[in-house]
Amino acid sequence: MLRGLFTAASGMYASQRKTEMLTNNMANAQTPGFKADHSNVRAFPEMLIERFNAGKSRSERVGTLHTGVYVQEMLPRFVQGDSIQTERPTDFALFDRAEGTAFFSVEQDGQVKYTRNGRFTVDPSGTITTENGWPVLDMNGNQIRVTSDRFEVDESGWITENGIQIARFGIVRADNPENLAKEGDGLFRTENNAALPIAENVDFTISQGFVEKSNVDMSRSMTDMITAYRTFEANQKVVQAYDRSLDKAVNEVGRVNG
After folding, report:
1. At CB < 8 A and 24+ separation, what contacts does 124-133 make?
2. pLDDT tens digits for range 44-84
3. Which of 95-104, 205-214, 234-243 has the highest mean pLDDT?
4. What pLDDT does 137 receive?
5. What are phi and psi of 145, to 5 degrees?
6. Looking at residue 127, what is its pLDDT?
7. CA pair distance 6, 238, nearest whole angstrom
8. 3-state secondary structure of 213
9. Three-state DSSP class for 245?
10. What's the rounded Cα separation, in Å, for the pair 61 and 52?
11. Which family is this sequence assigned to (predicted)?
12. CB neighbour class for 189 (10 Å; exposed up to 12, middle 13-18, buried from 19)
């Protein structure tokens, strides 16, 4: 009985984690460049159930039983989102041949991070930064400085100001983007902070005055949310049934009549 109680409780916990993930996805449905997470749910290892026969040294196999489920990992989907025109000169959308594998390079607390959110700005010092103030890097790993926001960027990422090319965005390529770790502010990092290679011209194009929208599918997210809630509710009812059974076993079946 206690094994069944644990199995139902693990199902509730897995459903709760999935609900939290979906809630975060939907909350970021309007965040430029946001990549929706999806979860992988796995069952705990099977248990071998055996019956021991009286007077025999060997056991007879009855069968196997899963003792619950857990959310093994949450991974972002790197499918490219739709683009929207903003006409802001500091907004940029990345389009790449292999969807979702090209990234802008930014500097956060001295470390190189990566993002698909091309909604940039120019700070008072003339540095191109993300909305959260992290400097955007060029292909040599240096911060990019301009004199105003009236600069032009071509499809290959070259920045031109007053007719002079001053820098090129440090666009990198991730051959296995699923290995990137997701952080706050729309940033990603590599394992051990290893640098990603600079992308070739044929791998991507940049559109100035556009941003990539979130790739959250609201209809699918709402359907998955309802499914997760109903799964949680079903496991909750199982826990309540076990609780009533335990209460009856302790207070009624185990009672000794005088």
Report:
1. 128/90, 130/106, 130/185, 130/186, 132/185
2. 766 655 555 544 445 555 566 667 787 877 888 888 899 99
3. 205-214
4. 97
5. -120, 135
6. 96
7. 10
8. coil
9. helix
10. 9
11. Belongs to the flagella basal body rod proteins family.
12. middle
Q: Is the pLDDT of residue 5 over 50?
A: yes
Q: Please, which residues have CB within 8 angstroms of residue 61's CB and are 6 or more apart in sequence?
A: 48, 49, 50, 51
249 Cβ contact partners less than 8 Å away, ≥ 6 residues apart: 1
Q: What is the tens place of the pLDDT at every residue in 105-162?
A: 999 998 999 999 999 999 999 999 999 999 999 999 999 999 998 899 999 999 999 9
Residue 176, classed as helix, strand or coil, is: coil
Beta bridge partners of 106: 113, 136
CB 83 within 8 A of CB 206: no
User: Using CA atoms, how far apart are residues 198 and 176, in angstroms rounded to an integer?
Assistant: 14
DSSP string, 118-156: -BEEE-TTSBEEETTSPBBBBTTSPBPB-SSS--EE-TT
| Closest CA relative to residue 199, chosen from 118, 101, 130, 119 | 101
Distance CA 159, CA 99 (A): 24
What amino acid occupies position 65?
Answer: L
Alpha helices in the chain, H assignment, sequence order: 2-27, 218-248
Residue 125 burial (C-beta neighbours within 10 Å; 0-12, 13-18, 19+)? exposed
Q: Cα–Cα distance between 208 and 217 in angstroms, integer? A: 25
For the chain, the distance separating the N- and C-terminal CA atoms, rounded to the nearest angstrom, is 28
Structure tokens at 60: 């007879």
Structure tokens at 213: 């929208």
**CA-CA distance, 240 to 67, in Å (whole number)?**
18
- Helices 218-248, 2-27: inter-axial angle, 10-degree rounding: 160
Structure tokens at 164: 């002079």
